[in-house]
Write a structure and sequence with these properties.
The chain is an alpha+beta fold. The protein is 28% helix and 35% strand.
Length: 156
């Protein structure tokens, strides 16, 4: 139980560091700044987010690239909450169903749905907070690798 709490806290600290710009890229932090975690469990995160002005497309809608960034980060944090290291995304699919306007509040929910060896699968749903309308679903497979262990030598 104690280890589970430590993993969740480490995951939340990582996500906070990304949103504040302490780690990662400026574009990434600017895109997710203001993200609020409202529920965190092992393999599960629920967040609220108000779409910022700087994340708009030319029509005043939430830019699809900004949506992808937030899906990747919240999904990554959910995966990190069940492991001992950050994973690398090896497959990333997003289906877009609608959009949100600038200053509209959305809810992002990430849930780890499977684990097979070093691969972990997570699904992230983004919905409008006021009516639950689905904006996007992201599906990710991530891989873990312990770079401290030597790789087997090739027999060629």
């Amino acid at each position: 139980m104690e280890e589970s709490i430590v993993q969740i806290q480490r995951s939340l600290k990582w996500l906070e560091d990304v949103t504040t710009g302490a780690i990662g890229y400026e574009l990434e932090s600017r895109t997710v700044r203001g993200l609020q975690v409202v529920q965190a469990e092992r393999g599960f995160l629920r967040c609220n987010f108000i779409v910022p002005d700087l994340a708009s497309d030319v029509n005043g809608n939430w830019h699809v690239g900004a949506i992808a960034t937030i899906i990747d980060n919240v999904g990554g944090a959910a995966v990190y909450s069940i492991g001992d290291r950050l994973n690398v995304t090896v497959n990333f699919n997003i289906s877009y169903y609608s959009t949100a306007k600038i200053q509209e509040e959305v809810e992002i929910e990430a849930k780890v749905i499977g684990k097979k060896g070093k691969l972990i699968s997570v699904v992230v749903e983004v919905r409008k907070k006021d009516n639950g309308e689905l904006i996007a679903i992201g599906k990710q497979w991530t891989a873990s690798h312990d770079y401290r262990t030597p790789l087997p030598q090739s027999k060629l």
